[in-house]
Amino acid sequence: MKRFFYFAALCCMIMFTFSSCEKEKEIGTTANLFGRWQGVTDSQEYMVFYSDVAEEGWYWGKEWNTNDKTEDDLDGMDYHGNGWFMWQKGKNYITMRNMLNASEAQAAIDRKLSALDDKNMTIVNNRGVAISYTKIGAK
Prior knowledge:
Blueprint (H helix, E strand, L loop, with lengths): L1 H19 L9 H4 L1 E5 L5 E11 L2 E8 L5 H5 L8 E6 L3 E6 L8 E10 L3 E5 L5 E8 L2
Antiparallel strand pairs: 1-2, 1-8, 2-3, 3-4, 4-5, 5-6, 6-7, 7-8
């Protein structure tokens, strides 16, 4: 009888452990990201997520603020330099490897997704601020 109670207690502990694990919820899809995005709060913020493969599992993207740069600046001499990034989508985040003109080193950051569909995206930037974007075109 003691064995039965030990076994029952062990089963309850295992069930509690597995049921209390918080599962990550999938937010949007990789296909939702493809396209040109404009900031909602700051309409001078832009991001473009291309479907062009940079390397296996990674795609190209770029971001800029028209206060500092134009898109033409990124596409000219800085092609795949400052302002460009390689990206891949996780369940509820985007990993971005920022490209640099000065070296081949890449700084990788994760940006948490709090919303993503075909028309709207909200990400948390590296300062912890949620920024909303609206899709303004396909790429």
